[in-house]
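Technical annex, item 7. During the second reporting period the consortium partners agreed on a shared format for inverse folding records so that results from different sites could be compared directly. Each record opens with the tokenized structure and is followed by the designed sequence. A conforming record, contributed by the partner at site C, is shown below for reference.
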């Protein structure tokens, strides 16, 4: 375990993941609706990006001449994103799936409010389709759907790591 923690990408991933879990847990304790706030979501993605960028930059600076190989940059950034999002999804499953399954009801209500606020932007068919999809049962958190969501998130995070590595390799 000690050798694993010496890997700066793993370390940054743990820091970012624990920070995101702490932010969401505090939001949950203050007001359960905040857990579904889109600003909070994007702010935590910003934390992931900052941690991944730090790992990529550290990797670039560690290279002879400060020139980063794209593959090494992707590896450094993606490792941060894999670890940090894994921590988040473990927390997500424990909270939403085990500790407080009633969060699905809160989420459905928040989504209904957002849908109503944006009703004028949708056609009647779109509104009806979105409205019909907002049942609490479809929002229940299970281990299989959490694992699938985590796996899908890694696709986007790989592309993000690629972009960060590309930028850093051009410096």
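Designed sequence (site C submission):
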């Amino acid at each position: 375990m000690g050798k694993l923690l010496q890997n700066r990408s793993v370390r940054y991933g743990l820091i970012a993941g624990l920070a995101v879990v702490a932010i969401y847990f505090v939001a949950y304790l203050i007001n359960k609706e905040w857990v579904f706030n889109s600003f909070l979501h994007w702010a935590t993605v910003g934390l992931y990006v900052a941690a991944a960028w730090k790992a990529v930059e550290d990797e670039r600076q560690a290279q002879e001449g400060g020139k980063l190989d794209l593959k090494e940059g992707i590896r450094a950034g993606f490792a941060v994103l894999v670890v940090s999002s894994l921590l988040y999804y473990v927390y997500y499953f424990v909270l939403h799936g085990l500790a407080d399954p009633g969060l699905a009801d809160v989420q459905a209500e928040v989504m209904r409010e957002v849908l109503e606020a944006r009703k004028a932007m949708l056609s009647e068919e779109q509104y009806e389709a979105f409205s019909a999809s907002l049942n609490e049962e479809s929002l229940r958190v299970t281990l299989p759907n959490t694992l699938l969501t985590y796996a899908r998130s890694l696709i986007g995070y790989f592309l993000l790591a690629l972009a960060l590595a590309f930028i850093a390799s051009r410096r």
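Residues 2-101+141-169 form one domain. The chain is about 80% helix and 0% strand. All partners now use this format for quarterly exchanges.
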